[in-house]
Specification:
2 copies of one chain form a homodimer.
Chain A lengths: L1 E4 L8 E6 L1 E7 L4 E7 L3 E6 L2 E5 L3 H15 L5 E6 L4 H7 L6 E6 L2 H10 L12 E5 L2 H7 L5 E7 L13 H10 E13 L4 H14 L2 E8 L7 E8 L20 H7 L3 H8 L6
Amino acid sequence: MIKFFEKAPYSPVEYSYDVEEILYKGKSKYQEIKVIRNLYFGKMLILDDVVQITERDEFFYHEMLTHVVMHSLPEPKKVVVIGGGDGGVVREVLKHKSVEKVYFIEIDEMVINVSKKYFPDVASGIDNTRVEIKIMDGAEFIRKRKLSDIDAVIIDSTDIVGFARSLFTIEFFTNVKNCLTDKGMFVTHTESLHFHKDMVVEIQEVLKKVFPVVDIYTAPIATYPGNWWAFAVASKNLSPREIRRKPKIKTKYYNDEIHHQAFMPKGLYEKLMQRKLQW
Amino acid sequence: MIKFFEKAPYSPVEYSYDVEEILYKGKSKYQEIKVIRNLYFGKMLILDDVVQITERDEFFYHEMLTHVVMHSLPEPKKVVVIGGGDGGVVREVLKHKSVEKVYFIEIDEMVINVSKKYFPDVASGIDNTRVEIKIMDGAEFIRKRKLSDIDAVIIDSTDIVGFARSLFTIEFFTNVKNCLTDKGMFVTHTESLHFHKDMVVEIQEVLKKVFPVVDIYTAPIATYPGNWWAFAVASKNLSPREIRRKPKIKTKYYNDEIHHQAFMPKGLYEKLMQRKLQW
């Protein structure tokens, strides 16, 4: 049996997977793209030797990245998705009937094409008429946008290194804020609370310089090292802890109970931000 | 750099760790015991090629296995700890001043001795005068006990295979119930909610045949494959979701907010038990 050894940045545990079959291997301008098949996880999308999604468990990440913010918004109409070339977040966003327009900003067109071919279910929303695809840097899209008409900006980036770093600066967050409506929200993953606690804190600190409301929720993701995945969410005034529309969409994991439970307890959040958590 | 490749049962992801130094390697009557040093996790205790604890993050597991039940009990005096030869659970139990007696039942004395030498902090409670060590099978200890005077039975077993299986039968659970006071509680880990969902459900089902109250809580453990670790808790009448004594002990992770948040939301629990969760 061939094995795939993941090369996740900053992870003190190395993950490896049995490879039943290598379905695709190619190189884009930005990264190496692989699709392998594993007996348990099904097809797996791998970018620069880091697992991005698996057929079996992609919904944990996509649902949790998308639906917390989407249910905290009273009536989201325009949504920007940056990254997430597999289309998983776009698919989840489109489940919300109020959504009229999804700007889908992906820097690497090859990821979209590979996903459409090998992950048709995940990519199923990409060609929807409500979706406008732009192959470009998400930071540039946000910087150039002059209107404040976006209800949600969702970042589904690779690990926060290399070209993804431009999405985690005070300039970028300021530009995001300028694009948002008064009720708008921003959400991004910020790596593992086990292994990247300092990065989780630093991103919160930068966001707090820009947004009045900044918070953290987590979700258990089996295929991301450290698993205890932290999401940063920010808004101009609405709390993301509150659900403003009862969930009516079909999901495998997310629901209103999970929404509330996912947020970091306030005592733990305070200790985290004071850098008093010892692990 | 030498690498240690974990051989966890049933895990579709294989974990590996850089080994700075092999500090100990021996073989007991029951298993191979290794202590290695990893730059990030510090010393790691490994039984039959499965990571049991690491210096850096052992408290997540030990605190969550111990303190949920201990804070749900009005005044725990007598506690049985089965397994957990490293002493981590015993250390946590002893933090509760009401505890007069800990029966510490470990089948493999060599694990205790290795832990005392290499993990003195974890093993710090083992020689406490309130602790009575018995080197024997936990199932036998429970079967032979004639009194119903135990407030908490805590199982800290290795993975639920091999000799640990005898701790997950209807006979054993019935005997546990007979040992408990009317307010007594039982808790055990039941592997990962990601990777061992069926086992989690089956253990709940067996427990429900014996105990009126059965529940699940979870904790994120970075070094156990699947990470999203499920704990089964059972009692004759008290709900473990309720805290009956305000936490006053010193912990790194557990607190009253974590206690409440850790329990599986009721909707998710129902879907799990109906085998409707699709992952």
